[in-house]
Amino acid sequence: MAIANARHSFFLVAMALTAFAETTWSQPSEPRGAHDREFREAAALEPDLTRGARLYDTCAACHGADGRGTEDGEIPAIAGQHGSVLLNQIIGFRHELRWNQRMRHFTDRHHLADAQDLTDVAAYVASLSRFPATAKGIGDGENLRAGASVYFQHCERCHGPLGQGNLLMSRPRLAGQHYAYLLRQMQETAAAGRPGMDRRHVELMKLLTPEQMRGVADYLSRVSPDLTSTRNR
Ligand code: HEC
Ligand code: HEC
User: Are 106 and 58 in contact (CB under 8 A)?
Assistant: First the structure.
């Protein structure tokens, strides 16, 4: 069942390629062009989940066999993330649109040789189920109300009412991500530490107060809907 879903999702991604390239990014650049070419090539391929599972062995050392990452937020949860988002991020690390030594190393051509490898591993990760929030993966609850309010005012229109993201637009599922990871990504984005991020997204993060950031991260870390029914929206 989950496997059939992952395949279905991937074909939808291929259909949405042009929309992705034209709407997601405001300023094309050299790394962006190389990224988009590789994204298009990978998303057009049919994923092989058996190969994907084999390739995932290296990833499991850090992200865990079930794709949970770590509650301290050092390693993100990736299980059940949209295939388009996984591809976008993995390829981003390959082209310096996201900076992280470890991810750069494990997504290089030595580990993921070509577009087929990228598709296979992304589809496998997308097919893993997300899990309910755990007590150590959430915030302290102090800014929850403010966080939910910020979320519905400024984030819901893209990341969805349940934090489920959007497969066709490559918008990440944020629901059920570890609190500390969400907070760190927002802070790094505001500090211009994610060069692949749309400029408007960076500006939005800069507007948030530290309390609002903690609140949004806390809110999102607590919701973890089963996405099987929303994955294709
Ligand atoms: C040595 C540890 C390590 C290994 C091995 C590893 N990762 Fe990661 N991964 C990380 C860390 C740390 C981050 C967070 C990077 C950051 O903070 O920007 C990350 C981030 C990611 C993200 C971005 C998630 C998000 O929502 O922002 C994806 C996708 C990902 N890894 C997939 C993979 C895949 C697929 C593999 C195997 C090919 C892999 N990782 C192997 C440590 C690792
Ligand atoms: C216009 C649409 C849009 C809006 C509005 C928006 N986002 Fe995003 N967000 C995106 C997209 C697209 C990405 C993926 C960017 C990338 O790395 O390529 C993203 C990425 C993120 C990430 C990084 C996720 C990860 O796993 O790497 C976080 C955290 C995030 N957004 C939080 C928020 C919050 C909080 C708000 C509201 C204050 C918000 N976003 C508003 C579209 C949006």
Answer: yes
- Percentage of the chain with pLDDT > 70? 84
Average pLDDT rounded to a whole number, residues 33-53: 96
Q: How many CB atoms lie within 10 A of CB 167?
A: 24
pLDDT band at 30 (very low <50, low <70, confident <90, very high): confident
Determine the Cα–Cα distance for residues 204 and 223; give it in Å rounded to an integer.
Answer: 22
Cβ(68)–Cβ(79) below 8 Å:
yes
Which residues sit with their C-beta closer than 6 Å to ligand 1? 58-59, 61-63, 74-76, 78, 86, 89-90, 98, 100, 102-103, 106-107, 111-112, 121, 125, 172
**By C-alpha distance, which of 18, 19, 26 is closest to 201?**
26
Burial of 50 (C-beta count, 10 Å sphere; 0-12/13-18/19+): exposed
If we measure between CA atoms, which residue out of 162, 32, 56 comes closest to residue 119?
Answer: 56
Q: Is the pLDDT of residue 19 over 50?
A: no
pLDDT at 17 over 80: no
To the nearest 10°, report the CA torsion of 52, 53, 55, 59.
120
Question: Could you read off the pLDDT of 117-132 as tens digits, one per residue?
Answer: 999 999 999 999 988 8
Ligand 2 centre to CA of 167 (Å) is: 13
